[in-house]
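Standup notes, structure subgroup. Blocker cleared on the adenosine-5'-diphosphate input:
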Amino acid sequence: MYKSFIISATASILSSPIEYLQGVSTIRGDMLRKELSIFNCRDLLHYYPFRHVDKTKVDTIASLHPQTEYAQIAGTLIHKEIIGEKRGKRLVAYLKDETGEIELVWFQGINWVNKSLVEGHAYLVFGRLSFFMGKVQMAHPELEAYAAHKAGGKAFLEPIYPSTEMLKAKGLNGRAIGKITYDLLQRVGPQELPENLPESLIKKYKFLSHFDAIRQIHFPASEKHYQHALRRLKFEELFFSQLRLGLIRSARHRYSKGLVFDQVGALFNDYYSHHLPFTLTGAQKRVLKEIRKDTGSGKQMNRLLQGDVGSGKTMVALLSMLIAADNGYQSVLMAPTEILAQQHYNNILESIKSLPICVKLLTGSSKTKERREILKAAEEGTVQILIGTHAVIEDKVIFKNLGFAVVDEQHKFGVAQRAALWKKNKVPPHVLVMTATPIPRTLALTAYGDLDYSVMDELPPGRQPIHTVHRFENKRSAVMDFIKEQVALGRQAYVIYPLIEESSKLDYENLMKGYEEVKSFFPEPKYWISMVHGKMDGAQKETNMQRFVKGDTQIMVGTTVIEVGVNVPNASVMVIESAEKFGLSQLHQLRGRVGRGSEKSFCILLTGNKISMDARERLKIMVATNDGFKISEKDLEIRGPGDIEGTRQSGLLNFKLASIVQDRLMLEAAREAAELIIETDPEMNMAENLLLKNYLNQQKGKTAWSKIS
Ligand code: ADP
Ligand code: MG
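Run returned:
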């Protein structure tokens, strides 16, 4: 009785609405919810400061120099006035200490600040500095009366929290949030914030307790205490995310029911022995074995296949689908664009034409009559391999017995679309998800940690690295001459224009201008040019694409609709216009359209003369390496995880403290620790693991991880 009373009482402090705290009015409460998603007291404790100010350290104005980013200054307000009009309206004030004078300026909340500033009073200000013509200015400083500061006598290290303009207008600046957090921490003890890691981990890594870590991250006794707290809380974030993902994976391994492919039959054997156009690479063989093992296990396979551009993922998919057919199951291969679906269809049809197996293509532009026939065939089970765009997952598409689903270039699909595949059979089909561009291991672990994971880190033999160069605009005609040389050798070329938004008129105008320009260098009838862009309908795209595939046209002008997957081995030059506008993974994808045969290939990155530092960095990396894994690591470093394609909606990378770039080693350690628990005590019933279970239950519903992929 007593115990349960305590639990409910303690639960109520942290789960109380934020208005429970002194100084939080309904208006402020609303604002905290809206602006920072802080709903209850627990959320507030997990809203961490972004820095601490050493309150014992006050800078003198004379000591400031252009390299000083932030400063804290104590002085007397000598003068203030509102100047300018309308959008130029601002409040300026001058603060003076014994060594000099500094200008403070506000562009927002002018009236409110003006009211609180009194000439002749002493203030402590803190903020970012800017220097202009020898003058120092501090815009929107945090500010408090100096007397109050002296009387406060709080911690040496005062936390500063990220705040917003809206919150500041309600008096909740980065410092004020600290005041309410401080108030809350006075009422919370270890029983409200119990330990959540097993003793063994705490010992191994010499962690602070959970409670101490939360306290010290806000109000550290010293810089060292802060670092300890930070280390512990970062580990928690990484560890619990790995534990959750691992539990999903292990539950699927243990409980899911999967279709059993227990034989390799005639279709596979016939194809493998008589029609395989090349020997498989070691990596292809290994991955095929992994898939064989999964699909024979009686559990559902949910596997992510990572392989660099051109590593031969399609062949792995085809061989797997043949095994499915050998076991009496249908397969589906879903591609992100019509061009790609069509290409897969053509290639697969061609390579298995002598086998007794029925392959069909279904896309948005399939004709009504044809569509009806395909739907009927899918339902009756007479089509064994269905290739298409997301048209294949529409509700109308019913399978007799779908056993294997391949999602090509997964980053183009949303989670919901992948989920739809699962529902296409009573026992969900095995799912193989193939990536367009490799992603770094740390990202794979966090964003797709619930999937099984294969890597193809080997290219088919005989591939030569693609020679990549960066050229400025003014070298355009030399670039065109180079294409002429290659075309004279019987090769083909791509010229790609950026398409930032599907609907952007400007981008299309650029493309058309580009097309005319290319045409002026390559006049008919000596040369023929194909063009493909997103505004064409499926049939138009296909005709243009096919003319290029067949070699009827020597040059393909297009937008990034040809970005992924397109395979024309005779093409040897890739020119990327306005290359500075593309991200690294896109550049790498585009470049991967050449170098698919055994001849030497080239990639030319054309840019204007003025490009940003970031763009320059990207181009340098492209010139330096052909290795997709290396490029993805760099991409992660430059852009951070939030922007990496395909992970944006995953919600899994929103760590508050940890960074999968800087804290790689800790992530590996957290993963190892989580794996150990999952292997030895997956139900977390051992005494020392009970707290893990409690904590996970308490956090339930907080994280939306990707159950399906
Ligand atoms: P991606 O992994 O980028 O999807 P593809 O599956 O399109 O790559 O394969 C790229 C090219 O390599 C294709 O022309 C394919 O026929 C060829 N290929 C695949 N596997 C091998 C292999 N083991 N040996 C030689 N060529 C191969
Ligand atoms: Mg591919």
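Discussed briefly. The pocket of adenosine-5'-diphosphate (ligand 1) is lined by residues 278, 280-281, 284, 307, 309-315, 460, 565, 567, 569, 596 (CB under 6 Å).
Next: hand off to the docking folks.
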